[in-house]
Amino acid sequence: MVERLRRFPREPDMLVYGMRSLAALALRAWLRTYHRLAIHGREHLPKEKSFALVANHTSHLDTLCLLAALPLRKLHRAFPAAAADYFFESVPRIWIAAVVVNALPFGRQVQVRQSLAMCQHLLENPGNVLIIFPEGTRSATGSMGRFKPGIGALVAGRDIPVLPCYLSGGFKAWPKGKVFPQPKKLQLTIGEARNFATIAPGKESANAIAAELEKAIKEMEAKHDGR
Q: Looking at residues 46-67, what average pLDDT do you find?
C-alpha cells in the first residue's frame, strides 16, 4: 500500500477519494474557525483549463489554504508539488501527502527534470491544477526567498494560466520547527492569471518568468501590509 501511494501518477481509488473528501471538509472547517482563513480573488480561478497556482511558502498550512480555495469538485485534480525527500520517506508523511493532499513528489536535489516533466504532463490534460512554491522550501524567517527558475521553465512557451498568490499569517501560525500550529489569522489573495505562451523557452526566459512572478507576489505583499 505504501509503495502504491508513493507512485505517481496514482491509480483511481474510490476509498482514497472518499477519505480525501472527508479530510478536505474537516480541514476547511478547521481553517475557517481556528485560523479565521479569508480567501480573496477566487473569481480569478479558471473554470475549465488547467492552471498553476504559485505562492510564497512559510508554513505547512500554505498548501491547505490553496486547496481550500478550490471548488471541492477539483479536489482530486489538484496536485501540490511536495518535496520527495521530505514527504515521501516516512509512512505517516506519505499517507498525508498522497491521501489527504494528493501531492506530487517533486525532486528538489535530484531528478528535477523528471519532476518538471511530470508537472508539464499534468498541465497538458484539461482540468488539472498544479500548486507550486518556487522558493523550493519553507522560509525560516517569514521573508520570501528568491524564486527558482523551474517555474519559468515549466510555463514558458505554453498556454497555461499562472496565478500568483500571496499567503499571509502562515509564519506566525506555524513556522518551521514548531510542532503545533497556533490560532493566528490566515489570509490568501489570488491574483489575476498570467500567460507566458509567447515567450520562447530557454534559460533566460525561465529566470525572467520566475522573477516576474516573484515581483508580482511581493507587490501583493506590500499592498496587503499597506506599504
A: 96
Taking only the tens place, the pLDDT of each residue in 127-160 is: 999 999 999 999 999 999 999 999 999 999 999 9
- Calculate helix-pair angle for 14-34, 61-68, nearest 10 degrees: 100
The span from the CA of 205 to the CA of 219, in Å, is: 21
pTM: 0.94
Closest by CA to 78, choosing from 29, 5, 20, is: 20
Instruction: Provide the H-helix boundaries in the chain.
Output: 2-6, 14-34, 61-68, 84-87, 91-95, 112-124, 150-155, 170-173, 203-225
What SS3 state is found at 81?
strand
3-state helix, strand, coil in the chain (%, to 5): 45, 15, 40
d(CA 10, CA 3): 11
CA distance 39 to 71: 13
Quickly tell me which residue has 512557451 as its cell. Answer: 157
- What are the grid coordinates assigned to 115, written together? 519532476
- Decide which of 177 and 26 is more confident: 26
Classified as helix, coil or strand, 60 is coil
